[in-house]
Amino acid sequence: MLKRIGGEINPEGAVTTIGEAELPVPFPLGLEFNSPVHGNWNIVHTGMLMPEAIQIYVCADNCMRGVVLTAAEMNAAGRFSFVIVEEENLLNGNLEDVTIEGVTDVLNKTEEKPKAVLLFTVCLHHFLGCDLDRVYEELENRFPEIVFVRCFMDPIMQKHGLTPDQKLRKALYDPVEKKSPDEKVVTLVGSDFALDETCDIKRLLRSGGYTLKELTACTNWEEYQELGSGKMLISCYPPAKYGAEMLAGRLQRTHLYLPGSFDYEEIKEEIRTFAETVKNSVGNAEKNDKGESSRNTESCMSSENIEAFFQREIVLCEDALKHAKSIIGNTPVALDYLYHPRPLGLAKLLLTHDFNVTTIYLDSISAEEKEAFDWLKTYCPNLELRATIHPKMRVIPRETEGKILAIGQKAAWFTGSKNFVNMVQGGGLWGFDGIRRTAEMMTEAFLEEKDTEDLVVRKGWGCESCI
Amino acid sequence: MRQSYRIIPVYTADVSGVCSALYELGGMVVMHDPSGCNSTYNTHDEIRWYEQDSLIYISGLTEIDAVMGNDAKFIRDIEETARELQPKFIALAGSPIPFMNGTDFPAIAQVIETETGIPAFAIPTNGMHDYTYGAGLALAKIAERFVQPSGAAKVTGATRTDISDVTSTGRSSHTLNLLGVTPLDFGPQQNADCMKQILAKHGWQVTSIWAMGDSLENLSHAAEAEVNLVVSSVGLETAKILKEKFGTPYVIGTPVGDFTEDLVMALEQVTNNTNKKKKSSEEESTSGGQDEPEIPYLRNRLSTSPEITLIGEAVTMGSLAAAIEKKYEKAVRVLCPLETNAGLLAPADHITKGEEEAENYLKDAKIIVADPLYRPICPSHSQFYDLPHIAFSGRIYLKRYKDILTNTTYLL
After folding, report:
1. Shortest Cα distance from A129 to chain B (angstroms)?
2. pLDDT score of B159
3. Residue B64: which of A10, A33, A160 has the nearest Cβ?
4. Are the C-beta atoms of B30 and A31 separated by less than 8 Å?
5. pLDDT of residue B166
6. At B332, which helix (H) or strand (E)?
7. Is the pLDDT reported for residue B82 higher than 60?
């Protein structure tokens, strides 16, 4: 039973239309609400991707509670330890000592020493001018067999700089050692999810005899170190771009940023660039002394074959979208930014295929979505945008008359829908295949209700959850 | 090292305690924090968040605002939201960075109250204390600001307890307030309701529950109750305020198992004594005649070597210990890891600070009753009984949350 506070709420400020919205933040900033939707990954989930590593956090009780229970809920409490910062540590200015001695104590009590420790320092370290160089130097002296990875949980910095999430996606690859490149290996950097086996990138690489190495597939330290063998690096998830660029610079590799998209032309351009880069890389590796290619990589990534690939893929996408439309019909569709980093692009795709997209839930608009934003502003100015963190979103009714299809967990909670696509952060979708998968998941969600309350409150979609 | 934890979590902190205590009272709580406090609270410390609205927000503090001391933005954002949503009060709670900066929360609250006309107050939290401290101070503020003398308060909308037998002092006979009831210690609402029913069976009507399943309006009538029952350490500060303001005596203990009879006897005794003293000493108009708090679970405890160890909040575990001793005649000790414990523990009990100390105390424990997340530090030879505690393991065991009042059949 939904309980309401007060009477009618004027939604102004929390709800607008895309015609009236401005980039990059369409809603006024102020106090922030946090919905009970927790499928997004946080730094604990992402940090657990590093094999044979443990995480140690050094912070105050309240900050600690969220991360330690994240680990517990994903059945990974054994890979999580911490050191509590108390009032007296702030007043005495001995944060370095507390950090060093606390981490040392935890490691001394840990029977099987980890290969790496993701050591998370926090806002307090930053504000107190804690000498982190000294901290790491001392810990490295005490535990020379362990790699200490510099990680941060300092959200106070995130509105004017890199977020803790972005910094972690860089730090996760800091221990990767430079090694001679394997010409047949491409490394995906910074994603929480493995790319789907059917996605365009993987199919193209397989057809050329390549391997895509992903952190998500690494089960031990040796496999993790093999990430450094990629001749070329790619990143697909926007918060991963910074870390991937840093890693490419350090390892002196080519890096391509290939964000997931719902726009045929953008996908084509990304694949052309990708194929060209791969081809060049392979060409150098696989040409014999006479300059002839030893395999057919060049031919499978040739311009002609790529263009033919596009044609086939687009036909399949159109079929999938038509099929979804034939089932979903004119049912209202609401989608959110948590489903995929390109919510406007997805809305544009669906609207151009006659889906009845009514609402997008988001709080800001990425610069990568400017083109979709401009298109929607021109052709669908009445499309509704709803904030997710605006204070009024706590009390604006979360029920919808009639059936509504929600794409994403936040859209599901805010609309009260049980018909929703349960995925976050773009999952393993990419390219034309990602469009088809979305159409298929929309159809499935439309036809089969889910237990919204049970699913969306679970932390870290795709992780173990013991609640 | 006391501050390092290898495997067990920390308890809910003071900031979340404030939010939990005030959740259902129609106010607005603002945590002055960059990010995270809100998510931590509503994910792990608040089981009502999905279905029941409450105006609980963070300020979204940024580095630049913290460095420049830009309180104006904080005030403006709160006032704008308050004008739109019209909360019954505004409570401010600080986190570590504002604590370090010395943010003057009482002054900010005063500015907000003056400019909006909405009662506003600050709870001195910093994210480094236990929930018992934060929740306790939050409820005490409600007592300070909103409870009216008996007969003076106006009932505005809320359904009130039917009080028919009003004594000459303006208090209703055999009525009490339950102080310190939050989901952090008591879980879902039915446990609070259950406590109410148990007391009703023993002839005691509950005037108000601080603060689950009750309204600010009803709480404002707390002075009409004959006695206060502090069912967790969260309610202790409120009891002191109500005693000081209205002379209401209080008893400390949770109605659990066979201990309920002792608790009810203590309630009778305290109210009888208070009435007698009032009659014999007219000049004692508000003191209520109670010198020391009545804590029946500390009386008649077994002095033999403890066979059973309970871990948790002082009052609920102390009461459970008394109930177990009464039923099984086996000595029980309580390990209390929470800071709100002064005067609430028996001689055999221990305050434990940190994982290491708790582990040391548990080394020779034979039977342990605690939240399941304590298991990893318990010796393998001990018998372990699960007693989930939301303030420790959050929602992990919510689906099989045991009602310590009635369902502890495996214990009682």
Report:
1. 13
2. 39
3. A160
4. yes
5. 46
6. strand B332-336
7. yes
> Is B360 at the interface with chain A, CB within 8 A?
no
Dist. CA A167–CA B143, nearest whole Å: 45
pLDDT band at A297 (very low <50, low <70, confident <90, very high): low
Torsion of CA B88, B216, B157, B112, to 10 degrees: -10
Q: Which residues of B touch A394 (CB under 8 A)?
A: 53-57
How many pairs of residues across A and B have Cβ atoms under 8 Å apart?
A: 215
Structural domain contains residue B46: yes
Whether the complex's predicted ipTM surpasses the cut of 0.85: yes
Q: Vertex B295, ends B291 and B298: CA angle to 5°?
A: 130
Contacts of residue A85, Cβ cutoff 8 Å, sequence gap at least 6: A58, A59, A60, A95, A98, A122, A124, B3, B96, B128
Residue A117 carries which side chain, given as an amino acid letter?
Answer: V
Which pLDDT does position B150 carry in this prediction? Answer: 81
The 10 Å CB-count burial string (b at 16+, else e) for B354-377 is bbbebbebbeebebbbbbbbbeeb
pLDDT, position A383: 98
Would you state the pLDDT for residue A400?
81
Query: Which phi and psi angles does A174 have, rounded to 5°?
Result: -60, -40
Q: Is the separation of the CB atoms in A117 and A155 below 8 Å?
A: no
Residues A325, A239 within the same domain: no
**Terminal C-alpha separation, chain A:** 22
* Residues A168, A158: Cα–Cα separation, whole Å: 13
> Do A325 and A411 contact (CB within 8 A), yes or no?
no
Which B positions 315-344 lie with beta carbon below 8 A of chain A? Answer: none
Backbone angles phi and psi of B172, in degrees to 5: -90, 130
Q: Does B393 touch chain A (CB under 8 A)?
A: yes
The CA distance from B337 to the nearest CA of chain A, in Å, is: 13
Chain B residues 63-92 within an 8 A CB cutoff of chain A: 63-64, 66, 77-78, 80-81, 84-86
Cβ <8 Å between A392 and B84:
yes
The answer as to whether A1 is a domain residue is: no
User: Would you say the pTM of this structure is higher than 0.95?
Assistant: no
Which of B43, B46, B54 to substitute to test the interface with A, most A CBs within 10 Å? Answer: B43
Q: Which of A59, A63, A391 sits opposite B57 (nearest CB)?
A: A391
Q: For B197-201, what is the mean pLDDT?
A: 94
Asked whether residue A446 is domain-assigned, the answer is yes
Chosen domain end from A301, A321, A356:
A301
- Residue A111, domain CATH: 3.40.50.1980
Give the pLDDT confidence of A34-46 residue by residue, as tens digits. 999 999 999 999 9
CATH code of residue B273: 3.40.50.1980
Listed in sequence order, the DSSP H helices in A172-232 are 200-207, 221-225
Return the sign of the alpha-carbon dihedral for residues B151, B153, B157, B162: negative
Judging contacts by C-beta atoms under 8 Å, the chain B residues touching residue A158 are: 34-35
Domain boundary among A148, A171, A194: A171
User: Which residue range(s) make up the domain with B234?
Assistant: 172-296
* Same domain membership, residue A321 and residue A206: no
CA B228 to chain centre: 13
- Asked if B81 lies within 8 A of A32 by C-beta distance, the reply is no
B127 → closest Cβ in A3, A62, A459: A62
Nearest residue on chain B to A92, judged by CA atoms? B100
Residues sharing a CB contact under 8 Å with residue B94, sequence separation 6 or more, in sequence order: B15, B31, B32, B103, B105, B122, B124, B125, B126, B127
B398: nearest CA partner in chain A = A467
Q: What is the pLDDT of residue A282?
A: 54
At which of B296, B311, B344 does a domain end?
A: B296
Q: Do B126 and A63 touch (CB under 8 A)?
A: no
A366: left (phi over 0), alpha (psi -120 to 50) or beta: beta
